[in-house]
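Input (structure):
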């Protein structure tokens, strides 16, 4: 009699058809090829748990000895024994694809292991682990499955009795998670398949489709457990919002936006998550960057100033997060670009100049906001961040960053003043890591000899601090401006959150910020006839898929990004202090025309052509909304904090020395 087809496999095949992983015909062939089927679980009671979703660890399709969560396969063996692993084509569970073939030679009383890194996997909601074997036992050998967590707690399960040595079919081993206690499923380090032999033997087996199973969306729910909270509803009452006065509306947006940082914070490490996605399939971006961390600190300071949290809570949040920040792996005192919020491992070993610049700038504000022990801890981290390590003195500019894997600097530099990276330049000068002359090594426009740029700039040379600077400009209608690389509003306006460009640079950067905001407004509303405006990098959903896209207006850029009729609310809100009436009209139009507001404030973008709202929240964009509103309601509150520091006061004339666009 044919054994019933296992529920886990049925679910996998349904998933395979739905996602396009396998065609319906391929599934039919797979069903035929594995019947009659033999599957054994760990016991009737344990296997009765509801299993609806899985997190795939490996189906060996990549053939590069790397699993689906970034870990690698390797082997360990006792003396006088050996074990080899390789990929076997058309040996997979479905008979199509690949399986891992394990060949071993064991001396008497020896053991071998095939193992893979789980990289701190958080799968705390898993109810079972599933592994598929094609195996023939020899002379009493044993097969064990071992899990180890990041605190080196180990548990192994002998599964030999659950494998039929006479079978030539694939067999599933389904082990309940409870059998692995006290291993912590919040931070798994390693999975091992152990082969033991009393008498010694040569043998082989195939391994395929290793997964953790659980209720609901097991991986998402496991990550969600780490957070302080999560949105419970997708859409807010926009009519209620539209009934508020301007200041009340802005404060409500700020309060809702703060809830992102209040809740989507890793409980154990107090680091902000990069993003969360609420539409199609929910996702949690359990990683963070130096900019995210720094802007979280600014968000805490804003929340305190607006009365959303108390002074003790603000201090406690900063203190706990600084404790984690001190523990993170660094290069020359500078942070890497991305870390896992689950286990603090470095996920992208690139050292970004601009990201470290924003973290350091935020630490300046922390130092100004919390005298005493917090300020001292912040100052210690600041001192350790050596920006000269990323500086190219020959060019007088900063490298984009340093690749610690390749052990080399990036091939490009941050060359334009109109860039979010000017904050890194300013902060490095304030710290004394680079000379003040660096500011005038940055290009106001690219050289006229570069004919590929969107316009050949006009202007003339001037002398600042004995440096010859080409004070050039582009034009758009009757407006003059210095361009950014991509033409996004983010590039022009992000630094104005902390730099007094409007107050001190009314003839320079402040004037340029205003020109950029007006051109963006007019481009969208008048030239393109869009109902709303605000074009900048953001997340964009395309059905079930989403991606972060660089967006801008080419006519305000040296090179230019495309704009693709995508509007992001944070972009216009950054211009709140420059064009308050226009921004308030835009906010109300966004609320009136699109379902773009949820429990944590504005979603990240809306594509106008369909239209389609990308129901995601990004830490970076949420923070910019909160900071911009706080500065508007509190008369440049964060800029005052920043500029009251003596190291900033010492160089703030950099913002007022120039006069752009003079005839």
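Output (sequence):
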């Amino acid at each position: 009699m044919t054994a019933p087809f296992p529920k886990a496999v049925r679910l996998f095949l349904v998933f395979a058809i739905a996602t396009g992983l396998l065609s319906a015909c391929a599934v039919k062939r797979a069903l035929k090829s594995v019947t009659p089927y033999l599957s054994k679980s760990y016991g009737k009671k344990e296997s009765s748990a509801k299993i609806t979703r899985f997190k795939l660890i490996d189906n060996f399709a990549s053939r590069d000895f790397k699993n689906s969560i970034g870990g690698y396969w390797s082997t360990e063996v006792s003396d006088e024994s050996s074990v080899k692993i390789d990929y076997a084509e058309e040996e997979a569970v479905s008979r199509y694809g690949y399986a891992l073939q394990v060949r071993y030679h064991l001396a008497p009383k020896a053991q071998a292991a095939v193992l893979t890194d789980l990289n701190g996997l958080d799968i705390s909601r898993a109810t079972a682990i599933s592994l598929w074997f094609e195996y023939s036992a020899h002379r009493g050998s044993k097969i064990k499955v071992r899990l180890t967590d990041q605190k080196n707690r180990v548990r192994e399960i002998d599964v030999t009795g659950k494998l039929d040595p006479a079978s030539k079919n694939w067999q599933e081993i389904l082990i309940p998670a409870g059998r692995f206690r006290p291993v912590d499923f919040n931070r798994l380090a390693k999975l091992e398949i152990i082969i033991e032999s009393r008498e010694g033997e040569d043998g082989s087996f195939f391994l395929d489709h290793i997964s953790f199973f659980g209720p609901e969306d097991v991986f998402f729910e496991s990550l969600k457990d780490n957070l302080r909270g999560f949105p419970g509803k997708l859409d807010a009452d926009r009519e209620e919002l539209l009934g508020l006065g301007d200041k009340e509306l802005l404060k409500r947006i700020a309060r809702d936006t703060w809830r992102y940082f209040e809740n989507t914070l890793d409980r154990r490490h107090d680091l902000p998550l990069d993003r969360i996605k609420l539409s199609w399939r929910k996702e949690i971006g359990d990683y963070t960057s130096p900019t995210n961390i720094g802007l979280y600190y600014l968000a805490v300071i804003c929340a305190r100033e607006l009365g959303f949290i108390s002074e003790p809570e603000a201090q406690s949040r900063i203190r706990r997060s600084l404790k984690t920040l001190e523990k993170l792996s660094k290069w020359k005192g500078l942070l890497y670009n991305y870390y896992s919020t689950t286990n603090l491992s470095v996920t992208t070993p690139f050292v970004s100049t601009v990201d470290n610049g924003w973290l350091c700038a935020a630490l300046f504000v922390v130092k100004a906001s919390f005298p005493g022990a917090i300020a001292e801890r912040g100052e210690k981290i600041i001192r350790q961040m050596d920006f000269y390590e990323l500086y190219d003195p020959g060019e007088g500019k900063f490298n984009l960053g340093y690749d610690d894997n390749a052990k080399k600097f990036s091939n490009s530099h941050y060359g334009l003043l109109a860039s979010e990276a000017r904050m890194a330049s300013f902060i490095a000068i304030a710290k004394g890591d680079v000379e003040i002359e660096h500011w005038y090594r940055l290009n106001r426009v690219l050289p006229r000899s570069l004919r590929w740029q969107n316009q050949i700039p006009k202007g003339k040379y001037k002398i600042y601090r004995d440096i010859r600077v080409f004070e050039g400009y582009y034009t758009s209608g009757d407006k003059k401006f210095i361009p950014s690389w991509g033409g996004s509003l983010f590039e022009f306006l992000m630094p104005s959150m902390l730099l007094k460009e409007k107050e001190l640079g009314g003839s320079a950067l402040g004037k340029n910020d205003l020109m950029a905001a007006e051109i963006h407004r007019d481009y969208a509303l008048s030239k393109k006839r869009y109902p709303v405006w605000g074009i900048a990098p953001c997340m964009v959903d395309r059905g079930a898929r989403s991606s972060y896209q660089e967006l801008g207006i080419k006519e305000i850029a040296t090179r230019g990004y495309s704009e693709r009729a995508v509007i992001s609310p944070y972009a216009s809100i950054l211009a709140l202090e420059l064009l308050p009436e226009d921004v308030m009209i835009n906010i109300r139009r966004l609320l009136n025309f699109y379902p773009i507001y949820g429990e944590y404030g504005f979603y990240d973008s809306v594509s106008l052509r369909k239209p389609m709202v990308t129901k995601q929240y990004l830490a970076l964009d949420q923070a910019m909304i909160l900071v911009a509103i706080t500065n508007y309601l509190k008369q440049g509150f964060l800029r005052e904090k920043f500029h009251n520091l003596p190291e900033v006061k010492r160089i703030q004339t950099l913002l007022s020395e120039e006069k752009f666009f003079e005839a």
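Notes: The chain has a mean pLDDT of 90. The first strand starts at residue 40 and ends at 41.
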